[in-house]
Amino acid sequence: MRYFIELSYCGTAYHGWQTQANGVSVQTTLEAALTQRLRKPVFVVGSGRTDAGVHARQQFAHFDLDEPILLSDALVYSINCILPEDIAIRTLFPVAPNHHARFSAVSRYYQYHITRYKNAFEPGLTYHFRPELNVELMNEACQILMRHTDFKSFSKVRANVTHFRCRLDFAYWQRSEADLLTLHIKANRFLWGMVRTIVGTMLEIGQGRMTLEQFEQLIAAQDRTIAGRAAPPNGLYLMEVGYPANILEQRVVYG
Predict the structure, then answer these.
(1) Which of 72, 76, 135, 168 has the fewest CB atoms within 10 Å distance of its CB?
(2) Please, which pLDDT band fits residue 184 given cuts at 50, 70 and 90?
(3) Which of 87, 75, 83, 4 is nearest to 255 (CA)?
């Protein structure tokens, strides 16, 4: 039996999603809670890897069991009681054996949050960036971004991928009345470090340190070394992972 888990987490205390030797990960913490509650070893596969300090409003993972389990609100509640406060399961549901949390996903939607003023009640949840920014110019850069499909210039140099092509569905900056500047960006896939490097480069544009012409040349060059520095992880949120409707047909939200 294969099961999908829908969860969210604040990434501040974790060394990213993936299990690793040098720190606590979301994956390891989730596996430990499931193993304890289900009383058998459980290993999960996520829809994608978020870096250290990156948050997820919606993340999916799958795991396999030899026997079916009785799904209920009580089961989800009990697993959440084992998990720390900064990780929460929303639902758990069965899927077909060939449905895969990573490879069956058709889209990912991220947001990056920036504030000009320090907020004592949200430490580590936004990027505190003081300089004034030309948001109109940054949105023009988003339109340039939408015209391209190869984003090698925004990928970490040692990314282990066969190609650097992504299909963007949208990319735009939006300012709220509550001192929050947000990049909304959705694509079929993202490269390692792509969103944070796009943000860091667009901050250069917003400050007048890079022209739109230079930005387009940067994309065409397919050279990460000439892009801006990556923005810090604490402002980045995985907001939504998209799947075909048939995969989610047995999804029930508990609680």
Answers:
(1) 72
(2) very high
(3) 75
Q: List, by residue number, the catalytic residues.
A: 51
What per-residue string of b and e applies to 200-223 under the rule 16 or more CB within 10 Å gives b? bbbbbbbeeebeeeebeebbeeee
The two three-digit tokens of residue 190, written as one number: 């993202």
Q: Under a CB-based contact definition with an 8 Å cutoff, are residues 167 and 149 in contact?
A: yes
SS3 content of the chain, % helix, strand, coil (to 5): 25, 25, 45
pLDDT value, residue 159: 59
Percent of the chain with pLDDT over 70: 98
Residue holding tokens 């993202």? 190
Residue whose token pair is 């930005």? 215
| H or E element that contains 176 | none
Quote the pLDDT of residue 158: 65
Across 132-149, b (16+ Cβ under 10 Å) vs e yields ebeeebbbebbebbeeee
Query: Mean pLDDT across the stretch 51-63?
Result: 97
Work out whether strand 55-64 and strand 236-242 pair parallel, antiparallel, or are unpaired.
parallel
How far is 11 from 15, CA to CA, in rounded Å?
Answer: 8
> Rounded to an integer, what distance in angstroms lies between the CA atom of residue 157 and that of residue 155?
6
Query: Can you name the residues that pair with 49 across neighbouring β-strands?
Result: none
